[in-house]
C-alpha cells in the first residue's frame, strides 16, 4: 500500500536503471545521458507491458466496449444480419413503445424487483440474525443455506415448475395437507409473478444470508453489552445497534439485488414462457423475443439501451457508495 | 470465523439461564426443521422423484418414499437426453473459459499493476466501467458481435470460443487479481529482476505462487459462472449437439417423461454441488470476506 502512492513518478527512470544494472552498474551514467537509448528502453518496457495486456484488452474491446457502443448505434438502425443497416431515426423506439407488451414488461419487471425486495430482503436478514445467535452446527447451516445457489438456475426453475404443477405439484399438495385452498401458482395471471419471486428468492438467498452473517460478526460485542446495561431490550438492540451497524451492507445488497432482479430472465423463460397473458414477460425476456422471435435487432437494441440507462444509474450509485471509505459511520 | 464465545445480540448470561436454554434449544430445533424443509427437502424430492416409476411420480397424494427405488430414470435420462454429450460440452466450455481467464486476466492484471503501461489508468477505468454496465442488458449487441467478428468476419456461433473469449472480459475477476497484485511489494519483484528474471519468469515463479488464494477464488467464480449461465449459451448455441447441459435441459424437457427430466436435473446439479461440498469452507469464507472489505 505504501509503495502504491510513491511508485507513480520515478518509475521510468528506475526501470531503466534496473535493467542496465545487472550488466554493469558503472555504465548507468552514460546510458542515462544518451536520450536515444533511454527512449528505446522505455519502448521495450512498454511493448512488454502491452504484450501482457493485449489478450485481455482485446477481449474487453470486442465483448464489452464495442457491444455497448453498438447497442446505441443499432437502436437507431434497421438491422438485419447479413444486409446493410439503414438509419431510421427513432423508429425503433416508437415501435417498441407502441408494443402492448412493452408496458407489461416494464410493469412486471418493476413489480418483480419490488416483490423480490420485500420478500427476498427481510427473510435473509432475519435468518442471518437468528443464525448468528446459534452456537451449534454453524457450518451446517451455512452450507445448507448456500446449497440452492449451487444448483444450476435452470434446474431450480424446472424443479419449481414441477412443484407449482396445479394437479400433481407439491405446492398445492402442501396446501391441501393443511386444509388451505389451493392456488393456480404460475398458471394464474395474478399469482404467476409472485410465484416466480419465490423461486428466485429460494435460489439466491444463500449469498445474501452469508454476507449478512459476516457483517453481523463485525459488530463489536461491547455495543450490545453497553445497551443491555442501559436496559435496552432485544428489539431495541436490533433497532438501535444491529440495523445501524449493518446499514451500509444492507444498502449495498439492496442495490445489487435491484440490478440483478431487473435482469431476470431464466425463471420466466423456463417456468411460464412469459404467460399467462404476458403477466410474467420481463424486459430482458422482451429483448430476447425481439431479437430471436421477431428478428428485430433494432427494437431489441432500443430496449437494451433503455434498460442499460436505468441500470447504469443504480450501478453508478453502487460504485460511488462502495468507493467511500467510511463504511459504518 | 469468530469463536462462539463472542458476544452477539443475546448475552451469554441470558443463554446460560434455564429459560434462556429452553428458548435457545427450541429456536435451534425450529431453524433445523425450517432449513431441512426449505432447502434439503426440495433436493431430496428431486433425487427421490427420479427414482419413482413414471406412474408414481404423478400420483396424488404423492408418496414420500418411492415404493420401489429404481435407477432406470437415471439410466434412461443418460441415454435419452444425451447427457454425456451435453455434460462434456459444458466441461469443455467451462474449462476453456477458466484457462483463458486465468491466462489473460492474470497477465493483464499483472501488467496494469506492475508494468505501468502507457494509458494504464484509462484502460483500468474502461475495464471498471464495464462493472457498471449490466452484462445481461448487452447480450443482443454482444451476440451480433460474436456472430460476425469485426474486421475478420468470422462467426463464433455454435463454437465454444463464443463462451471462452467473452468470459475473459470479466472485470470483476481482473480487478480482484489486480488488487491482490498491488499488495505484493515491489522490492520482491525488483530483487527477482536483479537476479536476472524476465517479466514472465517473475510472474510465473514469484507472483503466481504468492497469489494462490486469489487464483482459487477466481477459478471458482469462473467455473460456476459458465456452468450456471443460461441466456448467453441459449443464444449462441442453436445447434443441439453443441449445447451445454443447462440449455439442453430446457430444450429437451418438453417431450420426455417427467422422471427422465427430473433425473437429468439431478445429474446436471451433481458437478457444482460436489465442488461446493468439497471447497465449501473456501467458498463460504470467500463470500464472507469479499463483502466486509467491500
UniProtKB/TrEMBL annotation, chain A:
It is found in: Cell membrane. It comes from the Bacteria. The keyword Cell membrane applies. CDD domains: TM_PBP2. Residues 1-38 are annotated as: Disordered. PROSITE patterns: ABC_TM1. The keyword Membrane applies. Pfam families: BPD_transp_1. It is a multi-pass membrane protein. Keywords: Cell membrane, Membrane, Transmembrane, Transmembrane helix, Transport. Residues 10-25 have a biased composition (Low complexity). The chain crosses the membrane at residues 49-69, 110-131, 143-163, 192-215, 248-266, 297-319. SUPFAM superfamilies: MetI-like. Its main location: membrane. Residues 106-318 form the ABC transmembrane type-1 domain. Belongs to the binding-protein-dependent transport system permease family. This is Sugar ABC transporter permease. It comes from Streptomyces gossypii. The lineage of its organism: Bacteria, Bacillati, Actinomycetota, Actinomycetes, Kitasatosporales.
From TrEMBL, chain B:
The lineage of its organism: Bacteria, Bacillati, Actinomycetota, Actinomycetes, Kitasatosporales. Pfam families: BPD_transp_1 (PF00528). It is a multi-pass membrane protein. InterPro entries: MetI-like, MetI-like_sf. Keywords: Cell membrane, Membrane, Transmembrane, Transmembrane helix, Transport. This is Carbohydrate ABC transporter permease. The chain crosses the membrane at residues 22-45, 91-110, 122-141, 161-177, 214-236, 256-279. Residues 87-279 form the ABC transmembrane type-1 domain. Gene3D superfamilies: MetI-like. It comes from Streptomyces gossypii. It is found in: Cell membrane. PROSITE patterns: ABC_TM1. It comes from the Bacteria. Belongs to the binding-protein-dependent transport system permease family. SUPFAM superfamilies: MetI-like.
